Please model this.
Amino acid sequence: MNIKKIFKILVSLLGTVWVGSIIYLNDKYPDVEWDWENINTKDMYFPKNFIWGTATAAHQVEGFNTNNNWYRWEHSFDQNGKSRIHNSDKSGDAADHWNLYKQDINLMKNIGVNAYRFSVEWSKIMPTINKIDQDAIDHYREVCIALIDSGLVPVVTLHHFTHPLWFEDLGGFEKEENIKYFLEFSELIFNELSDIVKYWCTINEPAVYVSQGYFNGVFPPGKKDPLLAGEVMKNLLYAHTEVYHLLKSLKNGDQSQIGLVKNITQFDPLRRWHVLDWYFSKILNDIFTNSTIDLLLNGEFRFYLPGMADLSYTNTKAIKALDFIGLNYYSRWHVKGHLNPNEPFTFEKRKQDIQTDMPYSIYPEGFYKALNTVSKLEMPIIVTENGIADDKDDRRKLFINRYLYALFQAMQDGLIVNGYFYWSLMDNFEWAEGYSMKFGLYEVDFSSQDRNLRDGSKAYKEIINRPAVDSRGYKVSIGDKAPNLELNMLDGTRINLSELLGQVVVLQFTASWCSVCIQEMPHLEKEVWLPFKDEGLMLIGIDRDEPLEVVKKFKKQTGITYPLALDPGAKHFSKFAHKNAGVTRNIVIDKKGNIAFLTRLFDKDEFEAMKQKIKLLLKE
Model:
């Protein structure tokens, strides 16, 4: 066999492997993009006990942080004499949240949120290695009390990118022996606040801290050292594990919810037909997402960058070392691989994507994917950050509607998500970007410290103030005043619900296509309508969203004698439950017009309980 034939065979084999690999990867990891033109983002609802919040971090909003690693970074320059911060910005007074927190709590109330995530500034609480500033601790306690008094739940983050200069000078998280100082600080603040604070985040975004501080060099300490990056990542996760177990052992620990805040940015291949793009995407996803998930799932951690770093670590104490997982999600990066050892990959934008002011696009489908990724931990999820930098405020509404729709879809799929915190309450010092990135629901004039709610932010306010639903899809609760309905009856008459005061009313929502409804209707006829219709009970079946002729035929088929009403467009149904919730349900209304009992599906025990409740109400 000559060389040409061998070469052709090798090329053919390589081509076959290439094509086969691409087909497999595209099948296993499809590019998720929804048809937004045909999605109604208004068609979503959330549970009544859902945590709605906003989030900030101390250094970004408080002001007067002059003793931490970021203060030094802001006042330093690179090798070309250029400021480390965009436009040479300094955090300075920031949004003066330290002094204006009461005003800012009122802004939160105006939106309608019920929680606030913020960080405590370690460098203010422990300005030197042997000094504790009780006034600073007292300040944070006052913030928590003010939040609680205003009906908001405080959620405290212990480390959000900043720590004291003395800790930085000791080597920070580069050295495992320094973690003891973070443990001391965490224990101190937990003991001071855990009687009034239930939710705790240990460390914010370890992967971002590492990638920006030890790969890209744009966060302090400004290094570009893959080996050290792996060590710091390991130490941050070790610190989280130790803090978690320590705090759980303290007074109030068993009643506290303690979690890690995990940022997810998916790395997707720019060219879905190119093996290099897939290869580097996998490496980056493994380093910055999967390594952390693996540690929390099975105690195994690996930080692997071919030719640069390979660190393995086992810590069985890390398995399930959290009560919830905090998820920060913004977008994804598209990776383009190169046959260049000096620049093996780059991040590229796509023309078809809607860009934010940050160098990434709007990608709500990625939010859905990220929620599914962290759900592997089988822990409750709290979305601890999600938001958009949008100076012109021309994409914020779209972002909020689409990302919350993605959240809604994940919850509909069965994921346990307990809360969502929008980033951020107000414009702030956005780290290396300075004040150029406008993430705030409230626009801040930093010269006057005036805050104004952006028009685009009103989408968030509108969504969180919609009627919430319980686990069965009900918007209403027992004890609520029943909404007044004007019912168009099958016989052509009209009945106002208000006209039935003094009677016990049962509204049964039904439809001819509902098999469970059909099972239930004879029981309602025989066990509710016929025994009690002469004792002050009115039972009305309300057929959801079907035409008159269909409903007439339906009544004849079922053989019921109680009256039926029409509900075109489900306008009556949607006053009691979300429009897309299941139809089989009964609402029992007492003689004063208050909701007294609610059923869902034809559960025999619940049906019997409803009958007993009706008997009691009729005797009143």
User: Anything to note?
Assistant: The two ends are 101 Å apart (CA to CA).
